[in-house]
Prior knowledge:
By secondary structure, this protein is mainly alpha-helical. The chain is built from eight helices and no strands. The longest helix has 34 residues, at 29-62.
Amino acid sequence: MNRKELVFPATLLVLFGLFVLGSGLAGFAPGQQMGRDFAGFFMKMLSVLPCVFILIGLFEVWVKRETIEKHLGCGAGPLSYLWAVLLAGTNVGGLHVALPVGHALYVKGARTGVVLAYLFAATICRIPMALFEATFLGWRFTAVRFAVSLPLVVCFAALIGHHFDRRGYRLPETGGDES
């Protein structure tokens, strides 16, 4: 990012900081709560993201591009969507974990539709989330939700991925190693 691209986010961050500081001085409870919530979320991210980036780095070094292309690439077939959903089910951290993994899969040669299936499934089909949901809403509800959601995830990911591939869409280069 160049300096011009950083001006707007930096300005917003400074304004937010001034708002929280002013809220603390003035005793404005909603502003104070926003500051506490932001600090809690920020600390949670600081505790999770380093581990995520280490695991992503290990994935990029240890898993060969040929392996990803074979199982999740253009010649993989429909079974690749099942692999993507199973991989997404093991995701514990939500989208802030799934997005870097999805990017790593894409860079290693996974089809666009398979990456989308992984991201879609990571939002709705995570095993820890399903266990939590079943505890409160029951196994029957969870089973019905999975039975309805999973085919839709795969169908829409395949359709959107096919549309992107047909149009020749590619993610912008990030300057990283793509081996």
